[in-house]
Protein: Amidohydrolase family protein
Organism: Helicobacter pylori 83
Amino acid sequence: MQEIIGASLVFLCNEKCEVLEDYGVVFDEKIVEVGDYKSLTLKYPHLKAQFFENSVLLPAFINAHTHFEFSNNKASFDYGSFSGWLGSVLNNGGAILENCQGAIQNAISAQLKSGVGSVGAISNHLIEVNLLKESPLSAVVFLEFLGSSYSLEKLKAFEAKFKELKDLEDKKLKAALAVHAPYSVQKDMALSVIQLAKDSQSLLSTHFLESFEELEWVENSKGWFENFYQHFLKESNFKSLYKGANDYIDMFEDTHTLFVHNQFASLEALKRIKSQVKNAFLITCPFSNRLLSGQALDLERTKEAGLSVSVATDGLSSNISLSLLDELRAFLLTHNMPLLELAKIALLGATRHGAKALALNNGEIEANKRADLSVFGFGEKFIKEQAILQFLLHAKEVERLFLGGKRVI
Amino acid sequence: MQEIIGASLVFLCNEKCEVLEDYGVVFDEKIVEVGDYKSLTLKYPHLKAQFFENSVLLPAFINAHTHFEFSNNKASFDYGSFSGWLGSVLNNGGAILENCQGAIQNAISAQLKSGVGSVGAISNHLIEVNLLKESPLSAVVFLEFLGSSYSLEKLKAFEAKFKELKDLEDKKLKAALAVHAPYSVQKDMALSVIQLAKDSQSLLSTHFLESFEELEWVENSKGWFENFYQHFLKESNFKSLYKGANDYIDMFEDTHTLFVHNQFASLEALKRIKSQVKNAFLITCPFSNRLLSGQALDLERTKEAGLSVSVATDGLSSNISLSLLDELRAFLLTHNMPLLELAKIALLGATRHGAKALALNNGEIEANKRADLSVFGFGEKFIKEQAILQFLLHAKEVERLFLGGKRVI
C-alpha cells in the first residue's frame, strides 16, 4: 500500500548530492514519486502521510564491506601495523569464530540502528547467512577464497560451498565471490574463482594493497612477507604469487569487482583498475586502515582515476564499532579534504556509490528505486549548506527505517 | 580512611608511561603507596581492598581546555572553515548562552562519566562556576578577556569580575585568566590581563594560531581578518594588533601559560614559546581543529620544540562530544604517527601533561599525588604491549572514580 513521508530536509543522494527542504516521497515497495511534501499530499489526498520536523529523510545506507564472522572480537588482534595484525589474526582468529552467533546478531542490529539497509558481507564459513536471511537486511554475501598454493581439492570444496550459498539466494540475499588478497591467493586458484564468478554472473570482491608490506611483496617479492609463508602457513613459496599489481588487476578484466582498501595503490594502479576492469568500485574502511597500516585512501588519486569510493565498516576484526555512522565520522577525521566537500563524498559513499558497488537498486531517492528509506530526528533544523555535515556529525540512531517499503524500525 | 584498589592493568602515567600488571594503590586523600597488589594486601592486611579483574586502573583524566558556556550548541555554528565558524559564533553565540545551566550540568556529568576529574574551563560569564563548585570536579576557571580596542572601563569591569571569581576559590576551584587570541585582544589590554595574572599568581591560557586566517593576519595584517573588525565588530582597526606571532608570545615571558591549538605555529614560534615563556604548555583539541581549520597539530614539531601536549575537548561550540575518551580517539584518527606511540602521547596528554598544564598535583599514580583514580572494566584482559591502545579504543564509561580519595562513581 502506498504512503507518503516527508521531512524538513531530504537528501536525494543523487549524482549532484541534492539537499531539498520540506520534501517528500510517495512509495510502496518502490519509490513512486518524489516532490514537495505539501504538493504530494494534495496530489494523493487519500494516502497516509507523515511529515518529520527537524529531521532528515535519506536513502537507507549500504555497508558494502564487512566481516560478520569476526563480530566476537574486541582486543584479540594487534593494532598498529598490518603485519602485526595479520600475525595475530592467524594466531587468534580461530577462537574468535567460536560461538559468534550472538555477536553476529548484535552486529546485524547495529547495522539497522545506524540506518543500514544493505550489506556486503565477506564470509568464510557462511555462519552469518541464515541470520542475515532472518533479518530485514538485504545482503550480498561474498564467499571468500583463501589459499596460497594450488589445490584442486580445495577448489572443489569451495565450489560446493558456493553452491550451498547459491541455493540460499532469494530476493534479499545474493551470492557472490571474494578473492581474499594478492598475498593469499595463488593465481590459478584466483583465476578459477573469477571464472566461477563469470559463469554464475556473480559480483567479486578483493582486498587490495591495504599495506606497505603487501605492496612491497606484490611488486618486488620483498619485505615482511618473505617469511610469512613459511612462518605462518608452513609453505615454501618465497616469491610473490603475482608479477606485480597489474598482473593481479588484469585477472578481473571482465568482471564486476569491489576493490577494498587500496591505500597503497599508485595512481597508475588505480587507472589500470578503471581501464581494465569492466565494473570496478573502490571501498574504503577508514577506521580499519587507521588501526592497521595507518594510511588513509588518497581521495585526490581516486578522483583522478575516475573511480567512485564507498565507505564501509570492515569487521570488528579491525574496528570498534559497526555503526556506519561512526565509520563516516572516522572518514571525516582521517581525510584531509575541505570538510563540506568530504561530507558529500562520505554521504554518497554510504548510499549511491555503495548501491552501485553492490549492484542494488537503492541508495538514492528517485522514482523506481527500492523504497529503502531512513529518517533521523534532531532537536533542531540544520541550515541547508551545513546539513550533510551536521547530519554526519550528529546522527546516532535511525528513528524510522523502511526497507522495500516495509517499516522495520 | 585508607584503602587499597588494584587492577589487572595499571597505567602509572609517569614519564616512562609504565604499564604494570596486577598492581595496586594504597590511598586516602593522597596516594600512599603503589606496588604489586598482593604484596600491598599482605603489607596492609587491615585495609579494605578491592581488585578489578579485566580492568585498567589509571589516574583520573584532566581535560585542560573546554568552554562549558557553549554546552547548549548542537548545530548553530558553521563548520568547515575557521572564518565561517567565527562569523557564525558572532552571529549566533548569544542565543546559545541562554538557559545553558542544564546543558552545563550534562557537560559536567559527561566529564565524570568519561573519567575526567579535573577541568580547565574557559569562562566569559562565570555561568558554570557554581555548577562546578557543586560538582566533584576540580576546576581551574580561566576568566577570558576579549576586546580588540583599548578601554579602561572594560578592563576595570574585567578586574571586578576576576575578583568575583577569586572570591569563589577553594580547594577544588582555582581562578585563572585567559587572553582570548591575538586577533581579538588589543596589546595594552592583553598586557594588563597578563600583569593581573602575575600579581595574583594565576595561570594563563590563550588560543593561539588555530587557523591560517589568524596566521596570515598576525604575521602580515592580510587576509580574511582585514574585513573582520569592521564587519563584525564595527571597529576601524585594519591592522593586526601585534607585530607578528613573536610579539604576542613575548608578552607571556614570566608566566605559566597554556597555548591552545597552535596548528599554524611554525617550529620557530614553538621554540620561541619554549624559550621565552617561563612555564609553557600546549593544548590540542583535535575534533575542534578538524571542524574549523581542518589542520591537526604537528606532533613532530612540538617534540622538536621540547613542548608537552595535552589533549582536550574544547567546548560543544566546536565538538559533538565532551567525553575526553571520544576526544582521545579523535586524536588517534587525526594524527599520522605510528599508532602505539601515538596512544602513549594521547594517554599522557590526558593525564600527566594535563596536570602539569593546570599545575595540579594529580594525573599520575605516584605516592603523594592526589588520589584521583579511575577504573575501567572490560570483558577481557588486554595484552601489555597493546594495553594503552586497546584501552583508548574501547573505554566508554568509567566504572569507578575516586577524586581526592573519595568515591564519586
About this structure: The mean pLDDT of chain B is 97.
